């Protein structure tokens, strides 16, 4: 299984990365570099030809190398070392190198044998093709020969009924034999490119009909080390393409889309899931624990249904010392905490405990210094000490922090999706530049903090960001213009004005030019802001929710867009009178007016926007509902426009 090599390659590339500061590689550099070169070469060999005879050897060699290297790293970090040093004797991968050399030698011999066998098969096939051609050439009645083929084909009936019968026969054959069905579906898996196989098997960790967000799935694949590094694209971009490829091959199903039409959640058909579980057992890739049965000794990955009994949880500590991933699955969050289950697995890279409610944060997790993915639900703050998890890439959960400055010690951090991060003064935060960080859910500026500048300079490659200025008591400029990769921005409780006018507690937001989705919630807005928003040429989604507006009326000229702009979705703000026509948001797809009881009516000419597909009113006044109904009726009766739909929820 060539896919077993990629996590090892990811580890070695991380150690040998000249820009990293976590490891010191001195005289052992040539040895580790040689190991990386050999593993990479073997992976390329296996990408060209599947040598199933060597699957178990390849797996054992890859796992052995991972265990030696990561055990060395974990041992030194737990001893208090700030940097882990790799010398010529620590760790000693000589045995691994010898085993790898043996596998390489066998691989090359097998490939040479396969090449010779293939040449013989090609020669034999060519002989079979040439014989009838010679006969055809010597036969003067070649036209009769051709007609014979036509006659043979003409005997096959090709009506719709016949094809339906064939389809029914296939379905019956599948239904009659589960083993045959398994064999058929196995073909789809077996013919996958090597890099997609672990991604497909990973879906077996989740129960039947379980829906998982695409973003979560891709973050897990990255943390597992499945995704190959590509200097031109991020690991997440690569992983999203792989997910799309699995969907196109009908191995993973798209289950949900958001209101903008983008893919959101995925699942796997139960029959294909059974195939993945069996394949995972065969390949020792994943152990799925559905009940109180004990776990096999040191499975690489474990998926456990926590809604079932946890009676044997203590036994897990003795059988999982080399386990890398623990995924807890359940229908609802459990209030009981498992004993010390999982807490002896010092080499863990993935720990997903989102379905367990912790009253206090389990500080045993600070011992898992190899973690790259942590998902947890905790009712208390995370105490000092989380900075020990120096390899952390993704942190997800309903959590907040005693010492938020520790987060800026995670040089590998890519995704930070938590309840809240409270930013202190710059000198207390001691910001470091987090070049790999792409997502931060919500950050707030405490009353003691003066500006957002230090924080914003530390996240140059952020793509999704939430900022909350509700605690601020100072006028400030929030300059986001240098965040060129920022695409999704949520601003909460910010007093936004277009120009600083000297009034108290007002903030000027300088938006980035590449933003695609903007949410303004609970903000204070004046008319100048509208013109600024209309200058965001790549903006597709605009939501202005529960904001106070300086004027009760907004006019159409304030919403004029540059040519070519397209809004897929607009959720509007608190207004009494709205004056607009089809020239504003000329490519609007979806208009949502949410809980605005004071808005008297929807402008009638909004219905003339040619791209408009849906008007959605939720909790709005009777007069605004009546105006929307009139718009849709006029479009249908006067223009035969039945594409425009109306959705009314919770009318007042």
TrEMBL record:
A Pfam short name:
LRR_14
Question: Where is each Disease resistance protein winged helix domain found?
Answer: 206-275
Q: Report the superkingdom from the record.
A: Eukaryota
Q: Where is the Disease resistance R13L4/SHOC-2-like LRR domain?
A: 346-491
State one molecular function term (GO): ATP binding
Q: Does the keyword Membrane apply?
A: no
Q: Which UniProt keywords apply?
A: ATP-binding, Leucine-rich repeat, Nucleotide-binding, Plant defense, Repeat
One GO BP: defense response
Q: Which family does it belong to?
A: Belongs to the disease resistance NB-LRR family.
Protein name in UniProt: Disease resistance protein RPM1
